[in-house]
Amino acid sequence: MRKLIVIIVIIMAVLIAGAVTNPSREEFISWGIEEIRSEAESDIERIFGSAFAGPILEMQTEAEDYVFFSIFTVNKSDREIRYLGIFNNFYSLE
Fold first, then answer.
1. Cβ burial 65-84 (10 Å sphere, 16+ → b, else e)
2. C-alpha 48: how far from its chain's center?
3. Residue 39 is part of which domain span?
4. What is the domain count for the chain?
5. Whole-angstrom Cα Rg for the chain
6. Residue 42: per-residue pLDDT
7. What does the pLDDT average to over 10-32?
8. How deeply is 85 buried, as exposed, middle or buried, from its count of CB atoms within 10 A (0-12, 13-18, 19+)?
9. pTM metric for this prediction
């Protein structure tokens, strides 16, 4: 019986941590802008990339909130890219 209680407490702690650290759409867009900046090869690309990335990501991103995690879909012209947002981190689902 004691093991069951410990397991339930651990599961509850993980679920609460997931709910508290579930990233928002705005956090995803900020993360996306930082990713674009980090991949830029020159200062000009960093300046223009970050200036245009925000509005473009804002228009192309859809978010599905599942309390403990979120799924973000970026609709590009030829395909959709999906990301999992959990514990304040983002992972590609492709």
1. eeebbbebebeeeeeeeebe
2. 23
3. 2-92
4. 1
5. 17
6. 76
7. 96
8. buried
9. 0.84
Tell me how far apart the alpha carbons of residues 75 and 35 are, in angstroms, rounded to a whole number. 17
| Digit-coded pLDDT (tens) for 25-76 | 999 999 998 888 888 777 777 777 767 888 889 999 999 999 999 999 999 8
Q: What is the 3-state secondary structure (H, E, C) of the chain?
A: CHHHHHHHHHHHHHHHHHHHCCCCHHHHHHHHHHHHHHHCCCHHHHHHHHHHHHHHHHHHEEEEECCCCEEEEEECCCCEEEEEEECCEEEECC
19 has pLDDT over 80: yes
